[in-house]
Amino acid sequence: MSIVFIISAPSGSGKSTLTSELLKSVPRLQFSVSYTTRPPRGSEQNGREYHFVSRQQFQDMLAAGEFLEHACVFDDSYYGTARRYLREAEAAGNDLVLDIDVQGASQVKQKLPEAVSIFILPPSRDELEKRLRRRSEGEKQVETADRRRTDEERNSIIQKRLCTAAKEIENYRTYSYILVNDQLEESIDRLKAIVLAERLRRSGNRLSAAEQQVVASAQQCLLPNVRDKVRQILDSFAASIQP
Ligand code: ADP
Ligand code: 5GP
To answer: Could you list the residue range(s) of the whole structural domain that residue 234 is in?
Structure first.
């Protein structure tokens, strides 16, 4: 049985960065490339970051029951996980990583209660805004003419993402692990530890000292151990919406 790892985070928290490092360094892990109706950004390529499809194609797949989950994110774009990725991972003996939003995560948790869910948080609202702006600047440099956006459009996308983030982070309690992505290297190690710890837990084997350390590192991301940090992060978001 493949282990399904659900990774959710407010956009800009560093989920793609962490996930890509995880996939590079942990064997037997496969990434589920989602389908989306949003247009490609920056240097994104069809079939690599996403399968970019029209609304009609998305509706046809939905009607044919091809999605394990799907959701409308940021009010205007549809995203979905194709069931075939799970079948392929099972056949290849791999575990599967889903990078999906909180709505999709809740659907998958209902269908696959054994799935392991990980919520990534930015260290504060200010840091999230900085990361969104930095990424947006980076995308501007590599945009081709057909993908060019005005500064006003960029700003509005960032504001929308910050607003959505404030709502999404309220769901942190429903996840198995909470990872605050402050120092990148440390976060990568923690994410790897979570995956390895879950594999060890299911193996039922007696753990070596090194393996026990991996489990202890993963446990740093359990709610009771991050409660104070999370409280500060939630406060930083709440402060920004007060008059
Ligand atoms: P997401 O996939 O969550 O939307 P990205 O992985 O695209 O986010 O990261 C958003 C931006 O933040 C990128 O420019 C990335 O390089 C940067 N970033 C990611 N993690 C960190 C970190 N720990 N410290 C500083 N910058 C980071
Ligand atoms: P972005 O447009 O920034 O790549 O992603 C926006 C949001 O959509 C992120 O929270 C991302 O996790 C989520 N997302 C990406 N693919 C899927 C998917 O297949 N299903 C769901 N429910 N959300 C997804």
So the answer is: 4-31+98-239
- Answer whether residue 79 is part of any domain: no
pLDDT per residue as tens digits for the range 172-225: 999 999 999 999 999 999 999 999 999 999 999 999 999 999 999 999 999 999
CATH number, domain of 123, equals 3.40.50.300
Q: In this structure, which residue's CA is closest to atom 23 in ligand 2? A: 100
Which is nearest to 177 in space by CA: 202, 164, 194? Answer: 194
Domain count within the chain = 1
Q: Is residue 13 lining ligand 2, measured as CB closer than 6 Å?
A: no
User: Does any ligand 2 atom lie closer than 6 A to the CB of residue 95?
Assistant: no
Q: Which of 218, 134, 125 is CA-nearest to residue 168?
A: 125
| Distance between CA atoms of residues 27 and 93, nearest Å | 11
Q: For residue 47, is it within any domain?
A: no
Answer whether residue 66 is part of any domain: no
**Measuring from atom 24 of ligand 1, which residue has the nearest CA?**
184
Q: What is the Å distance from ligand 2's center to 100 Cα? A: 5
